[in-house]
Amino acid sequence: MAIILRPALPLDIDALWALRTVAVRVSCATHYAPEQITVWTASPVPPAYAAMLAAGGGIVAMQDEAIAGYAMLDVIKHEVDAVFVDPAHAGLGIGKRLLAALEQLAREHSIARLHLSASLNAVPFYRAAGFTALREEAYAHPSGISLASVAMEKALAAA
User: Fold this and answer.
1) Is the separation of the CB atoms in 24 and 38 below 8 Å?
2) Which of 12, 94, 122, 136 could be joined to 118 by an S-S link, Cβ 3.0–4.6 Å?
3) The domain that contains 27 carries what CATH number?
4) Handedness of CA 50, 55, 59, 65 (dihedral sign)
């Protein structure tokens, strides 16, 4: 089945957040305690999502009429905010395609270096995509919990 990438729209936000919640519950369970995941996934959509979409920073992967994954770029902070794939569509290369599209979007915004805070389970994914680990850190999640993560960055080649 073909995967089509399209810009994320404001009306997608609730569906994106629901996908993110499922992805965190499934994909992060190998690296985080159940109590952390419960608090993490109970948090509401951050106000920054609407701003990132308004700036053109969201990309959605569609399979038929279903959202199979999405990625968010904060063009102000030069930061990959999110790359999530529905666990039912894992292993199909959707995350790689979304990240590549996000990098192209960053180049179009004249961003030369991308930063992100990777969940522990996502470090190998980002490393395989050319990101370099800078340091381990405690990410202060908006829900009030602290999550172990890895600060990473990637210099982007010119378009």
Assistant:
1) no
2) 122
3) 3.40.630.30
4) positive
Tokens of 134: 């800078």
- For residue 25, the enclosing domain spans 3-111
Which pair of structure tokens corresponds to residue 137?
């850190």
For residue 69, what pLDDT band results from cuts at 50, 70 and 90? Answer: very high
Q: Residue 143 pLDDT > 80, yes or no?
A: no
Q: Count Cβ neighbours within 10 Å for each residue of 110-143 and write b for 16 or more, e otherwise.
A: ebeebbbbbbeebbebbeebebeeeeeeeeeeee
β-strands 58-63, 3-7: how paired? antiparallel
Tokens of 131: 């990101």
Mean pLDDT of 55-74: 94
Distances 57 to 50, 84, 113, 131, 153 between C-alpha atoms, Å: 10, 14, 15, 19, 18
In a domain, 85, yes or no: yes
Average pLDDT of the segment spanning 90-106: 95
Check: CB of residue 8 under 8 Å from CB of residue 60: yes
Spatial CA neighbour of 59 closest among 131, 3, 114, 111:
3
Task: Count the domains in the chain.
Answer: 1
